[in-house]
Each structure stands twice: as structure tokens, then as C-alpha cells.
Amino acid sequence: MASRRGCDKLIEEGKVEVNGKPAALGAEINEKKDKVTVEGVAVALPAEHEYFIMNKPKGCVCTVKDDKGRKTVMEFLPEHAGRVYPVGRLDYDTEGLLIFTDDGDLAFRLTHPKNEITKTYLVRIEGSIGDAELNKLRGGLELDGKRTNKCTVKVTETDKGATKLHVTVSEGRYHLVRRMFEAVGKEVVFLKRIKVGELSLGSLERGKVRRLRADEIFYLKKL
Ligand code: URA
After folding, report:
1. Sheet of strand 21-22, all strands in order from the earlier edge strand to the far edge
2. How far is the CA of 63 from the centre of ligand 1 (A)?
3. For residues 44 and 54, is the Cβ–Cβ distance under 8 A?
């Protein structure tokens, strides 16, 4: 309505009422329950932000509109989702955890390179991978003339000629995980993001969306 001092003035002038009674300077209100009016007009809080988590399927792009007419992640959002947009990107062929919000501050902080927010991926490659390659991935390797950050790489399963790994990176470079593996001679045949920081995709089904819980939003805001 006004600056802090301007609001004090409105209160002193008796223009502000809380639940139909003149407001007192310094009195506390419950902004969810109490009705505040200024000169008889109800004061509304700015709308709260929206936060969703999606299990993105492969075969869609992380843009609001695609100029090549491909399916976009927006098509999986419920109608009531509001004006949210995806935070960061996953490739067309990558699936997994994608956050949507209209909270620009949070989106900025989650994607800013300086903040090095970790992202964990489930990676499948054909065949096996040796210690030399694993250590190259972990220690950082050169991509486009710039070394990748150190990262965590754990082999979680080896069977039927394939290897599954969990890889935690702290950068958001284009096709980062696929290109890291390519640099050690391995092709990624399946890629899924399972965590952003400690926020986990959990059992959310492919193509499904849900609202983030308050504790999850609180966690992301503290990252
Ligand atoms: N790394 C990739 O190669 N692709 C993604 O979508 C995310 C990380």
C-alpha cells in the first residue's frame, strides 16, 4: 500500500481497520486470518508463488514453446498450474526431476553457476567401465576448453552387459553428463535426474506432476 512510514501515517490517521476495528500502531496481525482494510478497501497480499515437481518423460523439450513443434514439458502441467516455468533444462532424451515455479528469485538461485547446486543422475551405459575412466570423470576433464568440476561417480549395478551409475555434478552445462561419458569413450544410453540437492524425485511416476510440500520449498530456499 505504501512505505513503512506511509503505512504508519495511514494507521495514525485512522484509515486502517483490522476486522472492522481501528488498527493500532505496532499491533500484530495474522495475515491469513485477519481482514485488513484501508479506507474501507480490503488489502490483499501478493499471491504466493507456485512450486511443482515433475518426472519429465523423454521425448519432450524443456521450453514453454518449441519452434520445431515438438512436445514440451508444459503439456504435462495441470491447467491450474498458473504461469510457472521449468527451472533449468533436461535434454529431449533425458527424463527425471524437473522443478517448475513462478518464483524468479528461487529459479535464479537454483540455476546460478556460482551456487553449484548439486544434481544427481542415474546413468546407464553399455558394457563396463574401468577405474581409469571413473577416476577421470571424478577428477574433472576438459570439455570445450574448460575443466568440469570434480564430481561423485558410483557404480550401482553391473549386469547383462550394462552398467548403472549414480553421478552427482555441480554444474549445469549443455549435455554435461552425456559429454563427460563421451569424453571417456562411453555412450550414455539412459539418463534420468533423480535429485536436485537433497530434493528427491522419489516414486513420482513418469509424466506426473505434484506440488512441492512446504518442507521441500523451505529446503530449496535455503540452498
Ligand atoms: N546432462 C546431460 O547430458 N543431459 C541432461 O539433460 C542433463 C545433464
Report:
1. 21-22, 16-18, 36-38, 41-42
2. 15
3. no
- The CB of 62 under 6 Å from ligand 1? The reply is no
66 is catalytic: no
**Alpha-carbon distance 25 to 16, whole Å?**
10
Q: What average pLDDT does range 117-142 have in this prediction?
A: 97
Q: Which amino acid, 148?
A: T
Name the residue with the closest Cα to ligand 1, atom 2.
175
Does 56 sit in the ligand 1 pocket, CB within 6 Å? no
Mean pLDDT in residue range 69-92:
94
Buried b (16+ CB within 10 A) or exposed e, 121-142: bbbebeeebeeebeebbeeeee
Strands 188-196 and 95-101, bridge-based pairing: parallel
Mean pLDDT, rounded, for 169-193 = 97
Q: Do the beta carbons of residue 4 and residue 21 sit within 8 Å?
A: no
**Alpha-carbon separation of residue 53 from 48, 93, 124, 145 (angstroms):** 17, 18, 23, 34
| Dist CA 51 CA 81 (whole Å) | 9
Annotated catalytic residue: which of 66, 91, 93, 102? Answer: 91
pLDDT band at 47 (very low <50, low <70, confident <90, very high): low
Q: What is the mean pLDDT of residues 174-185?
A: 97
Assess whether the C-beta atom of 175 lies below 6 angstroms from ligand 1: yes
125 in Cβ contact with 189 (< 8 Å): yes
